[in-house]
Design a protein that fits this description.
heterodimer, A: 226 residues, alpha/beta, Rossmann fold, five-stranded parallel beta sheet, B: 200 residues, 8 helices, globular, isomerase (chain B), SIS_dom (chain B), SIS_GmhA/DiaA_subfam (chain B), carbohydrate derivative binding (chain B)
Chain lengths: 226, 200
């Protein structure tokens, strides 16, 4: 998580040139809000421009796996662990009218996570769960802001060896995940900001969910669907 | 891997749907800055941040808490923050005995101090337990902040109300994420400007 370049003073030098009064600081912080809002829109446009065919292809592959009875496993560290939970729950408990699909976040069970970390090592924390739970028709999605998470890389490697469909999400230049030849799909968000990367990754996986739903609905109406 | 042109077009449409919400965030930049100012004041008084929501917003609550507890920028101070959705024993215990609408209120009443910050997240503003948590927080004197979506009238009462005017819960969720990332980053600006000591 600590891979953000530069400190606050470097990012906002104008705020440190003087003891500004509170209203001035509020106005300058508001400028920063507008700038960051423009950044995420520009980044989403970049990602759509660069990745749309690959996002669509990934969703088709995921829909094929789900249609054949596959399940989704998702994992990441820190903020990405909560994103893994968010991703799992949108598949497992989607908005009304959408198809329920089997998904599990590997970050939610404190007993399993601490047992594996304590007894084996943190690098094994997702790989061992996948080795136990995963089946060849399943899907593994690993989230890493930098791409440098060793436990995400290890889990995707195990998943690939077991025949799961493997999807990696990274930022910056892709890090360790970019070196993983076994990955079926890799989305690298071209930004140096941890925060903007996570926000754009969220749009990518929400879009994967949306297209997976569209694809499954087109293929075969599910029992109970309107 | 191949994909259909229809699939690609659907990707472009999905991404484009996010732009109005990001523009709205820019349009309400002054409000976001005011939330950061008031949160920083609470942290200076020794307050902690308490965050809660349901479903995907429960994950966001945890994400927001970890931003403050373990900052992505090296050298930033760890600030006290807890998410109320992490303890499944307590959540299911309260839910089973007193009802799910009370899961956040119960924890707030037991754990909160008057100088704290309560931040509730609800994509449509209608979550009963988030409403009750914020009502309790207001009674107890906490600073209250809401991230919601849809109609402003549905949202719980709070000192600061940031509403994403969209009905797609996933687009709302993404804009909540951008907003709370900013809250963390820009609270730091106020703390660095005025120090972490209480103001006289």
């Amino acid at each position: 998580m600590g891979d953000m370049p530069g400190g606050m003073r470097e990012l906002y030098p104008f705020l440190y040139e003087r003891q500004a009064d509170a209203d001035t600081v509020v106005a300058e912080v508001a400028d920063a809000v507008r700038e960051k809002a423009a950044e995420i829109t520009a980044l989403r446009r970049d990602v759509a421009h660069g990745c749309a065919p690959r996002i669509a292809a990934c969703a088709e592959a995921m829909a094929e796996r789900f249609a054949a009875g596959g399940r989704l496993f998702v994992f990441g560290n820190g903020g990405s662990s909560t994103d893994a939970q968010g991703l799992a729950t949108v598949f497992l408990h989607p908005p009304a009218g959408f198809r329920v699909l089997p998904a599990l976040s590997l970050t939610s069970d404190a007993a399993v996570v601490t047992a594996l970390s304590n007894d084996v090592g943190f690098e094994a924390v997702f790989a061992r769960q996948l080795a136990a739970l995963g089946q060849p028709g399943d899907i593994a999605v690993g989230l890493s802001t930098s791409g440098g998470s060793a436990n995400v890389r290890a889990a995707l490697q195990v998943a690939a060896e077991c025949g799961l469909l493997t999807v990696g999400m990274a930022g910056h230049h892709g890090g360790l995940l970019a070196e993983l030849d076994a990955l079926d799909h890799l989305f690298v968000i071209p930004s140096a900001s941890v925060h903007r990367i996570q926000e754009a990754q969220t749009t990518v996986y929400h879009t994967l969910w949306e297209l997976t739903q569209l694809r499954l609905r087109a293929a075969r109406p599910a029992c109970g669907d309107p | 891997m191949s994909s259909s042109p229809a699939g690609e077009a659907a990707v472009h449409r999905a991404f484009a749907r996010r732009e109005a919400a990001a523009q709205h965030l820019a349009d309400t930049a002054g409000q976001v800055a005011a939330v950061c100012r008031d949160m920083a004041a609470r942290f200076r008084r020794g307050g902690k941040l308490i965050v809660f929501g349901n479903g995907g917003s429960a994950a966001d609550a945890s994400h927001l808490a970890v931003e403050f507890m373990h900052p992505v920028m090296v050298g930033k101070p760890a600030l006290p923050a807890v998410a109320l959705g992490n303890d499944s024993a307590t959540l299911s215990g309260i839910g089973a005995r007193e009802g799910f609408a009370g899961v956040f209120e119960h924890q707030l009443r037991a754990f909160a101090d008057s100088e704290d910050i309560a931040l509730g997240i609800s994509p449509d503003g209608r979550c009963r337990n988030v409403h009750r948590g914020l009502a309790a927080a207001r009674q107890l004197g906490l600073l209250t902040v809401v991230l919601s979506g849809g109609l402003t009238e549905e949202a719980p009462a709070a000192d600061h109300l940031l509403v994403v005017p969209a009905t797609d819960p996933l687009a709302v969720k993404e804009m909540h994420m951008t907003t709370y990332h900013m809250l963390w980053e820009l609270v730091q600006v106020f703390l660095e400007q005025y120090g972490t000591e209480p103001l006289a």
